[in-house]
Amino acid sequence: MKTADFHPARVQTLVFDLDSLTGEFSQEQWENFRELLRVLQERDFHLVLLGEEISPNDWQQFLGISIVSGSPESSGRRNPQLGQADHFWVTDRANLHAWLQDQSAHFASRQPVLVPNGFCCPRIEDLLQIFHPSRNTTLEIAEQLLKSKQEAPSKPLLVGIGGPDDCGHAYFVGELLEALEEQGILVGGFDLLELLSPEHKNSTAADYWRAPREREWILDTLLRPYAAGETVTVIDEPDFLQGCETSSYPLFWAPEMVVLLWGTTIFVPGIQELLDIKIVLDLTPKAAAARLFELDERSDFNPDFVKTYLKGEGRLYGEYLEVNQIQQQADFLVQFDNFHAFKLVTNLK
User: Fold this and answer.
1) What is the CATH number of domain 133-346?
2) Given Cys at both, which of 116, 172, 179, 288 links 138, Cβ 3.0 to 4.6 Å?
3) What is the per-residue pLDDT across 276-307, written as a single tens digit (0 to 9) for each?
4) CATH code assigned to 8-130
5) Where are the domains of the chain?
């Protein structure tokens, strides 16, 4: 699927021409269509429904959805913003395809498409594979990492992933791991969440580490040898790391692999200079507080939770970001407020 200058990341609004799409829907197809709309809303897309006799009462369960009554052609003339570059249409009307082409608007149709700005999508449900911000984000990162490995297959590639306490590091790593494996890349990983934290800043271990022994073993046994191009093999987990679930053992890292490290304060001296790629997960204070206290970040929960976060973990993490200029050094900055729709803010430098 290729259309002129089309990129799903630029789309913010999806416009559905209901009369052309749903005229012969069965009850099951209607249920599937409503579920598709719910998923797209979870992914932070604004939805517009067009129809000659559409009733807003039929769509009350969808908060924030826009209902436009009238023919698509007249609706487009009355609402020129529907033809803007960040709008994407779904319609089977061939005459509307020509109008959308004149507006330089992109669209999909279940019918054959004869103009460059559209493409054929026989199943409406397949739009979920296209408009999947989180997956598109990890695929874009994975493609950059694949390019780096293709340019130097035997050179180690160490990737650091950092973000606030309990923000969902493991979820992001899982999504990125899947994207990398789809590219045929061998991947190793190490979870530093329990070993590195802003709360350890004033402990006996310097630079946010929980304990000096853990810092020395990870740097001397794992990271420095791997970064130097050596193959790293560890048969058994050290006694002092048991219970931390840092990695699976036996651990094997070869220079031909990509190794992922993740933790709250991952970009600290000792590790930072060994990293080839830095990925920062960026959250608003509200989203970070919601994750920490296990609240629904989309709900209007008590703002005192945010205040508590900003006085404690949030303050410590903010100081770490500022002192070490973390975001300024990021190769990828990921807006991570929504698990279903995390997006790149900054691409590779």
Assistant:
1) 3.40.50.300
2) 179
3) 999 999 999 999 999 999 998 888 899 999 99
4) 3.40.50.1000
5) 8-130, 133-346
